[in-house]
Amino acid sequence: MRRILPFARQNRNIKTILAVSVIFSGFFTVPAHAIERVKVEVPVHEYKLDNGLKVLVKQDKRAPIAVVQLWYKVGSSYEHNGSTGLSHVVEHMMFKGTQKYPTGEFNRIIAENGAEDNAFTGQDYTAYYQVIAADRLEVAFELESDRVRNLTLPPAEFKKEIEVVKEERRWRTEDKPTSLTREQFEAVAFLNSPYKNPVIGWMADLDAMQVEDLRAWYERWYAPNNATLVVVGDVEPEKVLELAKKYYGPLKPTENIPPPKPQTEVEQKGVRTIKVKAPAELPYIMMGYKVPGMINAKEKWKPYALEMLASILDGGNSSRLSKELIRGKEIASSASAWYSGFGRLPDLFSLSGMPTKGEKLETVKAALLEQVEKLRNEPVTVDELARVKAQVIASEIYERDSQQNQANVLGSLETVGLGYKLADEYVDNILAITPEQIQTVAKKYLIEDSLTIAELDPQPIDPNKPKNTRSFVR
Question: Whole-structure pTM over 0.85, yes or no?
Fold first, then answer.
């Protein structure tokens, strides 16, 4: 499974949510300078064990629960050609037992304690979590620490689970025309970046995968010195550290964790296009421009300007795409824009759209490009920018109500190499963005030479094929 928060990408377009606390009034009409924020200092306690495990603890006593997450610095962007899908399959096999807790015991004990557990694999990380009553925190620590280094990886279980992953791939991607288009789009948009590969893996690589491949991958990357333990909830930081030392402290680090080699994306020399043929009712288009991320931006305001640009286009019912393409001209049944700037590697600024019945895909394509051109040629208004800033900030306030989202922020930022402290800077950096900066990034990055376009060409749907209704909740 793959989400950023909590299930990152196949949908890496979902932006990383950064926790903040803000107070403002009349935010749909006030100018940007009138938006006020009041910081509420909630410290993050940071520790490091002798074996290299980093521990982050944030106290939140609004509910008597704790969110416990273990993040590993490994995901699909670490995989090489021919080995795609390894991190995701390891995620599945993490639930297949150790010597101490055989297959099924982990989930049984968690359920007996009234808790929930799951995991998610992304491009840049894999994470495992439990949401548990705060007074039963030790249960989660004992169970999770045991599978850091002690998976048995039974061949019989692997044989069954790899078929589950293949079926998941069929259900999530191959039988969904827009998802299939997205996968093909990313494979064409990137030449050298590992973001070209799907998290779930290519089917040919899944067919060729052996349990020995999995064991080597697990032994190489899944170790305390390649992980961050995050705990958010009704906990005492010193007690958390005590439990971490008790259960994680004895784990041996691994000595063969190499730093990932730089994989700088090849400079694009012109527009790339691809047409995807698949059974579908309506056509669909995706467009993406190469843009910097927070990790490599020389001027740190640019990723925030790109994020604001995406929100101008697609930030609710008052955004330009909704107001002009969907409700106004009524040429699109859906239209979206998104930017993912908080990963380990630079990514794309993407747009997509689906025409209403009777409209041509070319009409939607032209309308999307027209919106881009408008942003390049005209600065957004101060009032429009203020509205979008207020909406972005409001969403952050609501997200702060979730202990799990708070943990997701700490874990994801720390694991990709940006550092969890970046969360404290997010709102100030968003509020500082000007109309001129938004126009600047639009002019610099939203250009044809860095553009990739994928079009879904609908093919007849087999009326006898059963509908895709399967769920893959663990």
Answer: yes
